[in-house]
Every structure is written in structure tokens, then in C-alpha cells.
Amino acid sequence: MLKNYSSTTEFYLLGFPGSKELHNILFATFFFFYLVTVMGNILIIVIVCVDKRLQTPMYFFLGHLSVLEMLTTTVTVPLMLWGLLLPGMQAISLTACCVQLYLYLSLGTSEFILLAVMAVDRHVAVCNPLRYTIIMNSHTCLWVVIVSWVFGFLFQIWPVYATFHLTFCKSNVLDHFYCDRGQLFKLSCDDSLFTEFILFLMAVFVLFGSLIPTIVSYTYIISTILKIPSGSGQWKAFSTCASHFTCVVIGYSSCLFLYVKPKQTQAAEYNRVASLMVLVITPCLNPFIFTLRNDKFREVFRDAMKSCYRLLKA
Q: Which residues, other chains included, contact 308 with Cβ-Cβ below 8 Å and sequence gap of 6+?
């Protein structure tokens, strides 16, 4: 299994080092985070779809963001959890590895585009409230979301193709819990320096291409808020952006450490920790960030709970 492979048909994921007891603890911890992530995002999607008070562009985008978050974690985390229960290394076919990497990168790209769109939406709401419903109409919102999804899936076709076009002849063991691109480059016997550099530039394009509109939007938002004379008015205006701003800070900071590096073949321990931040911790925090810090959503959620209580009592 550890000999050279000139035509690899499957890989083996090393997962997490340590004893069986440690694996059981990690399984319980990560399963809890994954469960919270899925249930929290499903709750957001259902409430946004059902309650008419949340039929606005901001919550329309939030619903799609929740779908992306849930799908991104589902592409990788269940496989990681299954690996923690196995006694040895986990086998994954070349096709499954390719599909997993493609879905993970595509969904992540769409998520960054959508975060930038949400920043622009908040900019229009705060800086140009009288024209908000005209600019962010249902037709515009629908097309923006479609473009976000389509762009993410089209943009990642070549990077994934270039990765799996390499010859994997050194080994077929990936020192990770999912098909990480950096670890795949380590197994290649081709000269992949140019390919890695191009992928680095593409990662920079996605991250900073979506981060720049976000920074510009929040610059105008903060400038507008500071012109409001009353402190209560300033807080009310900023509260509409606080949850998105928090999500942006956490999401971009963790992904910058993971993806924007010239050398893809980073240390395995570094990649594992950074990947856990992106795939497990951040998606679990986002439902709380978007609900607990949002007065309107809390009001709708309380009303929904009261309605469910009345139905059960009846």
C-alpha cells in the first residue's frame, strides 16, 4: 500500500493521530459541532422561507448562505467522523476524492461571493435606504444568487482538473482527514510549482476579489453611521450589519491562513487545525451569530416557538 503508484485509483486518509480513546473524544466533539451546524442552518432556512416578516433581500441571502454552509460541512465532516470510528486508515477512491475537492472548493467560492453580495446589500440599506427596495428588488436578488452559485462551480473546474491531472507516484496516503489539495501535491512526482502558483493567484482572486467590495461597503457604512447624531440611531444602524460583519471577520481570517499561501504543501498539522476552523468551528458559530445578534430573527423565532407550544398544548 505504501509503494510507488504511477496510476493511483484510490487514496488512504490518515486522519487524526492518537489513541482510540482520543478518537472517540474527537468523534463526540466534532459530531456535536456538526449536529449544531446542520440543525442551526436548517432552522434558519425554514424560518426564512415560512415567515413573511423575513421575506427581504437580507434574509433571502442569509437562507442561501445557510444552504452553502450546511453543504460545505456535509461534503467533508461525515467522512471525517467515519474515519475516526475506523481502526486504520480510511480508503477513498480517486473519483470520490476529486468530487469531494471540487464540491468543497466550489461551495466555498460561492459562499465568499455571497458574503460580498450581503455586504453590498447592507451598504445600500444603510447608505441609500430610500432606494433600497428599488435597487435590491426580487429580480436583482435572484440573479445575484444564481451568479454566485454558478460562478463558484465554474471557477473551480480548472483548479480541480489541474490537480488531478498530476501523476501521483510517490504514495497514495494523504496526511489529512479529507482530500486536501496541498497533500495531493505532496504525492505528485511532477514539477507542480507553476500549477501551485497559478492556484495561489486564483485563491487570491477569489478571497480578495470578494473582500474588496466588503471593505469598501463597510467603509461607506461606518462613514454614514458616524454622521447620525444620536448614539441610539448609530447603534440601530450598525446592528443591522453586526452579524454579517462578525461572520466576515471570522470566515476570511481563517480562510486566509488556509488558502492564500504560495506553497500548497504546508505542514500537515497546520492544515488540519486550519481546516477544522473552516469546516467545523466557523460553520457552527455562524447560525448563532446570525440569530442571537438579530432582534428581528429572535422575535420571529419566539413567535414560532409560541405557536408550536400552542399546537402541542391543544
A: none
